[in-house]
Amino acid sequence: MGGGHGGGLTYKGVTVHTPKTWHTVTGKGLCAVMWFWILYRAKQDGPVVMGWRHPWDGHGDHGHGDHH
């Protein structure tokens, strides 16, 4: 495999090296962005996805005329 520099943990012949700090920080940041996006979309589209309302419900009147 790769070079033997740096610390790491060896288990059953496989060495997992310690990640660099920027890898850890970037990974946590991207994870946070992912969850914020998932929760934002769930707030926006959740009722439609769960079948609680139709996508065309709740948009209000856009001036398409009276429908009596």
TrEMBL record:
Alphabetized InterPro entries for the sequence: NDUFB2_plant/fungi
GO cellular component: mitochondrial inner membrane; respiratory chain complex I
Protein name, as recorded: NADH dehydrogenase [ubiquinone] 1 beta subcomplex subunit 2
